[in-house]
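Action item from last meeting closed. Structure (318 res):
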């Protein structure tokens, strides 16, 4: 979240008149984030979040709106979009696509405890059960096909050993996945790091920022979560968080035999996905705005730990 397109109180007050959300009281730009302009808006009735979309594929925004509304209708803790009096949620403001959301309670957990891990695992399992029936389609833009097509763009910027590591990993992933049929599919969050959740104490206030949302392997989503939520500073897996998240998740959606077999590979593949995407931002395609990119080294460390130590055993489903 950040502000790249400033808005005046008058602009926002006029925008809110389309909606049944009360009268404008105040506007606050939200610092941080990478892609969109975000504001907290207060009316005489409620707290809201206003997002302007600065870049990306705007024609894909209806997919995100439909996914959020679908999950909200199924009582998942996500910010379903606010529709205007005509039933429309996607608008234009300051010549940018704009969406209005309820402001969810809580803050990002820096060091999640086991209670927070349990509710996150349970909620993601619930989300994946529900998302298998979501009718929308947006192919995963960061899957194995992307890794194969894009990884060569960063090879000139990394060491010979890392070049070999990256190329060998992509080859290994292709070999592993080619031996199995299609994994369970559904709609994914696609970027469910700790800073895309909000907690009040041990209560999950919401899951936010679905703009990497897509459809694809549910296991991909789960691996992203484990690599962020259950990883120590040295890249190794934290056994307690790992066990807690995966047990809670599987109470909702047990993994299939194919998923269990491919689990160590998926952990490595999603680690490489973030190592590569961060390298691309640093060396090949810097952000449009003056922002500090995420450090690629974090996911190189995680990848090397997954190669060295593999995955911890998956909890058995009772």
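Sequence:
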């Amino acid at each position: 979240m950040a502000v790249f397109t400033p808005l005046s109180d008058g602009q926002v007050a006029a925008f809110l008149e389309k909606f049944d959300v009360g009268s404008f009281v105040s506007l606050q730009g939200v610092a941080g984030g990478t892609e969109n302009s975000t504001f907290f808006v207060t009316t005489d009735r409620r707290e809201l979040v206003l997002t302007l979309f600065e870049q990306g594929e705007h024609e894909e925004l209806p997919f995100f709106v439909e996914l959020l509304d679908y999950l909200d209708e199924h009582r998942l803790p996500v910010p379903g979009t606010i529709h205007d009096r005509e039933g429309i949620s996607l608008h234009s403001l300051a010549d940018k696509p704009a969406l209005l959301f309820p402001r969810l309670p809580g803050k990002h957990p820096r060091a999640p405890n086991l209670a927070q891990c349990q509710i996150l695992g349970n909620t993601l399992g619930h989300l994946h059960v529900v998302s298998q029936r979501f009718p929308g389609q947006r192919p995963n833009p960061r899957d194995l096909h992307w890794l194969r097509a894009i990884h060569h763009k960063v090879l000139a910027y990394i060491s010979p050993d890392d070049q070999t590591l990256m190329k060998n990993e992509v080859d290994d992933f292709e070999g592993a996945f080619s031996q199995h049929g299609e994994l369970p599919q559904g709609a994914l969050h696609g970027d469910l790091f700790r800073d895309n959740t909000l907690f009040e104490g041990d209560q999950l206030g919401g899951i936010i920022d679905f703009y990497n949302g897509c459809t694809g392997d549910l296991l991909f989503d789960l691996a992203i979560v484990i690599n962020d939520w259950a990883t120590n500073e040295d890249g190794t897996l934290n056994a307690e968080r790992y066990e807690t998240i995966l047990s809670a998740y599987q109470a909702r959606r047990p993994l299939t035999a194919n998923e269990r077999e491919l689990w160590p590979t998926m952990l490595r593949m999603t680690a490489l996905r973030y190592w590569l995407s961060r390298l691309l931002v640093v060396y090949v395609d810097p952000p449009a705005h003056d922002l500090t990119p995420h450090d690629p080294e974090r996911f190189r460390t995680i990848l090397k730990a997954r190669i060295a130590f593999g995955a911890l055993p998956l909890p058995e489903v009772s």
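Note appended to the action item: Residues 155 and 162 are 8 Å apart (CA to CA).
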